[in-house]
Amino acid sequence: MKLLLLNTSANTGSTGRIAEEIGLLAQQSGFDVRFAYGRQAVNSRLSLIKIGNKWDVRWHGVFSRMFDAHGFASKQATKKLIAELKKWKPDLVNIHNIHGYYINIELLFEYLKKEQIPVVWTFHDCWPFTGHCSYFDRYNCMKWQTGCHHCPNLNGYPESWFIDRSRANYLKKKSIFGGLKNLTIITPSQWLGKHVNKSFLKDYPVQVIHNGLDLTVFNETIDDKIFEKYQISGKYALGVASTWDNRKGLNDFVSLRNILSNEIQIVLVGLTAKQSAELPQGVMSIPRTENARELAVLYSGAQAFVNPTLVDNFPTTNIEALACGTPVITYNTGGSPEAVDEKTGIVVEKGNVVALKEAIENVLINGKEDYSNNCRHRAEELFNKNDRYSDYIALFSQLLSNKE
Question: What CATH number does the domain containing 279 carry?
Answer without folding.
Answer: 3.40.50.2000
